């Protein structure tokens, strides 16, 4: 995980437990995710704020998000300051277990639709003016299938 804020629950929990989960949620949960980002204080329950359900992980001690179509359970290998000021960290983990909903585990399937991976297009630049005053969210859509 890159660019993880050192002020977040997630970062503090990773340092404490040396474990974490990476949960992949579809676009339908975008507003829920944003609520957790804007209410990420150490005294707040982000699962409750986002309306998410905790699910027991198979190997690590931290919970997965039940609404995730794909979750990686990870053991922390290394944490590095990437800001030079202790503001953002790069967390390197080893995946020790994966949980996936069946309809997302079949190759070219739901993970490559609006119900699958979402991508943050952070501050795309206008190459003529240099403006970058918005962010966008994208989803994958296969445009050609090649059989080998």
Under the CATH scheme, which architecture of the domain at 4-102 would be assigned? Roll
Q: Can you summarize the main beta sheet?
A: 4 strands, antiparallel
Structural class: alpha+beta
Strand content range: 25-35%
Report the CATH C-level class of the domain at 4-102.
Mainly Beta
Radius of gyration: 17 Å
Specify the overall morphology: globular
CATH topology of the domain at 4-102, by name, is: Pnp Oxidase, Chain A
Ends apart, CA distance between termini: 33 Å
Strand order of the largest sheet: 1-6-5-2
Using DSSP, what is the number of strands? 8
Number of helices: 3
Give the fraction of residues assigned to helices.
Answer: 10-25%
H-E order: EHEHHEEEEEE
Global mean pLDDT = 91
């Amino acid at each position: 995980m890159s660019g993880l804020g050192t002020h977040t629950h997630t970062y503090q929990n990773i340092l404490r437990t040396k474990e974490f989960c990476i949960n992949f949620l579809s676009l339908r949960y975008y507003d829920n995710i944003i609520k957790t980002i804007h209410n990420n204080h150490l005294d707040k329950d982000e699962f409750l704020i986002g309306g998410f359900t905790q699910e027991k992980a198979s190997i690590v001690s931290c919970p997965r998000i039940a609404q995730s179509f794909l979750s990686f359970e990870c053991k922390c290998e290394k944490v590095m300051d990437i800001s030079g000021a202790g503001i953002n960290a790069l967390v390197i983990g080893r995946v020790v277990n994966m949980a996936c909903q069946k309809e997302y585990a079949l190759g070219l399937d739901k993970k490559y639709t609006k119900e699958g991976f979402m991508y943050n297009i952070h501050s795309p630049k206008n190459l003529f003016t240099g403006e970058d005053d918005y962010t966008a969210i994208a989803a994958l859509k296969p445009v050609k299938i090649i059989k080998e």
